[in-house]
Amino acid sequence: MEEARHFIGNQWVATASHETIPVIDPSDGQVFAQLGRGNAADIDRAVQAARRAYEGPWGQASAADRGRVLYRLSMIIAAHQDELAHLEARDTGKPLKQAHTDAAGIARYFEFYAGAADKLHGETLPYQNGFTVLTIREPHGVTGHVVPWNYPLQIFGRSVGAALAAGNACVVKPAEDACLSILRIAELAAEAGLPEGALNIVTGYGYEAGAALARHPGIDHISFTGSPATGAAVVKMAADNHVPVTLELGGKSPQIVFADADFDAALPVLVSAIVQNAGQTCSAGSRVLIERSAYEPLLERLSEAFSALKVGPSKLDLDCGPLISAKQQQRVWDFLSDAQHDGIAMAAHGEVIAEAPEAGFYQAPTLLRDVPPAHRLAREEVFGPVLCAMPFDDEADALKLANGTDFGLVAGIWTRDGGRQMRIARKVRSGQVFINNYGAGGGVELPFGGVKHSGHGREKGFEALYGFTVLKTIAIKHG
Ligand code: NAD
User: Fold this and answer.
1) Residue 55 known to be catalytic
2) DSSP assignment, residue 344?
3) Distance 227 CA to ligand 1 centre (A)
4) Aldehyde dehydrogenase domain spans which residues (predicted)?
5) pLDDT at res. 50
6) CB–CB of 305/406 below 8 Å?
7) What domains appear along the chain, each with residue ranges and CATH number?
8) Which of 248, 291, 381, 459 is catalytic?
9) CB-hemisphere CA count at 13 Å for 77?
């Protein structure tokens, strides 16, 4: 792969500015590659290439042919899983086994959407006598995708896979902190037979290339994943062109554990839901709400598990890798120093291994107990391996705590009581609810998205295809 270039029209092209952005390995803090610093001129070039593809070969391809190209891409990605996993692990710092899961995940996204491409259809609607009314689902045209650094492969796959299957041509602005795997996928997509311009990648800073994409009048839909503040800024920019935006903005997701739960089953899931990807997961289970009678015994078991966690470089494949950047590390430190200042007790923490390079961005997984519900640690997204434990008294109290943040992305419910499972599931405000499990292994098939400040619109599953299409109603009067 050539460095410091964008991928536009199935070619590597020089950045308009000829400026670069250093790529840092979070495991050792060292620069190991350069990205192109894209600007409005690069975005414009990519949007024009996408428009030509949409009005040309890609827009005119049959749904079945689109599916065939995406299926070939899924096969090619699967064949390159090892290479992609190594690239992703180095770029993001995540342990190699997690990166393998992500690389297998993106192959699965393209496989799923390849199969869905020719199963997307409208309806016929009952209307007055003498009419036949039907709906058809049409692509938006050129879609913009702003992708974050935490799961470059997976988030790219879920958004671009669905957009391409629905017949759109895409312009992607991946995150400046980690996007090498996405550039490689673009090359593989050309190899799979995706026509020129159907998929274009412009690297660069959010405030520069990202903002240029959000403002571009040639974009017909934007899919954004990242922070609530940037999401709101993107919506405002897109509003000038009346462009619809899908937002996936993270969460402060509760895991609600009742005293009758199967603790043996719950324990490893409660730990992995916050430690996976060093807690830098929008759907991380970052709050554990425990029924008071079980609070101390479960905290003891959680503390034991946290104390055993090991943190180190991605290649050592331990429980947890480094955070993405010095900025993210400082953010987590700020939260933890607030906890200390406000007297919030640390129940346990893991260990950064001695071999971890000094210049890497490491943070030991940390379990905090009795976090006051009004404290920022209980309400704001830390985006690090920090789990906040809180006791509750009854179902009403559990729901009040669970719904007591601005977010609403995912909730976990742990209980053997079937009635309670459904009472809580119906009343908790979140886009996904998992009962006696959490995350359901990624679940490509399962619609995903939030309520409140977690965003709006749905990605994943068949539902995502509706978001990447517009419905046209055709009424025929035939007497
Ligand atoms: P961010 O929202 O600033 O960045 C996400 C993406 O948006 C990146 O590609 C970035 O380049 C782009 N971007 C930034 N400013 C932009 C702008 N003005 N216009 C258009 N695009 C822009 O997030 P961050 O600074 O990388 O991380 C900050 C916090 O965001 C994290 O601590 C975490 O809480 C949250 N976050 C959430 C997710 C998620 O999956 N929901 C992912 C990453 C970060």
Assistant:
1) no
2) P
3) 5
4) 12-474
5) 99
6) no
7) 5-249+456-476 (3.40.605.10), 254-442 (3.40.309.10)
8) 248
9) 31
Q: Are 35 and 21 in contact (CB under 8 A)?
A: yes
Closest residue by Cα to residue 198 from 163, 167, 170: 170
Q: How many CB atoms lie within 10 A of CB 147?
A: 28
C-beta separation of 303 from 367 below 8 A:
yes
Ligand 1 atom nearest residue 205's Cα: 11
pLDDT digits (tens, 9 = 90+) for 258-283: 999 999 999 999 999 999 999 999 99
Q: What are the start-end ranges of the H helices in 250-394? A: 263-275, 292-307, 326-341, 376-379
Residue 1: the pLDDT is 42
What DSSP designation does 212 have?
H
What distance in Å separates the CA atoms of residue 299 and residue 291, rounded to the nearest whole number? 11
Reading the block at residue 6, the tokens are 């964008």
CA-to-CA distance for 340 and 344, rounded, in angstroms? Answer: 6
Structure tokens at 446: 């399962």
Give the three-state DSSP class for 258: coil
pTM over 0.90: yes
Element (H, E) at 133: strand 131-139
Nearest CA-CA partner of 170 in 194, 204, 138, 149: 194
What residues contact residue 164 under an 8 Å CB cut-off, 6+ apart?
Answer: 66, 70, 113, 170, 194, 198, 199
**Number of the ligand 1 atom closest to the C-alpha atom of 248:** 41
Residue 349 confidence (pLDDT): 98
Q: Answer yes or no: are the C-beta atoms of 451 and 408 closer than 8 Å.
A: yes
The region that residue 366 occupies, defined by phi over 0 for left and psi between -120 and 50 for alpha, beta otherwise, is beta
Locus of tokens 């995708």: 145
- In this structure, are strands 20-25 and 30-36 parallel, antiparallel, or unpaired? antiparallel
Q: Which residues of the chain have pLDDT under 70?
A: 1-3
CA–CA dist 325, 320 (Å, integer): 15
Spacing, Cα 446 to ligand 1 middle (Å): 24
Q: Is 175 in the pocket of ligand 1 (CB under 6 A)?
A: yes
Is 234 close to ligand 1, i.e. is its CB under 6 Å away?
yes
- Separation between Cα atoms, residue 207 and residue 224, nearest integer Å: 14
pLDDT reported for residue 441: 72
What integer pLDDT is reported at residue 237 of this predicted model?
Answer: 98
How far does residue 233's CA lie from ligand 1's centre (Å)?
11
Strands 351-352 and 310-311: parallel
What does the pLDDT read at residue 440?
74
The contacts of residue 377 (CB under 8 Å, 6+ apart) are 335, 338, 339, 344, 368, 371, 386, 388
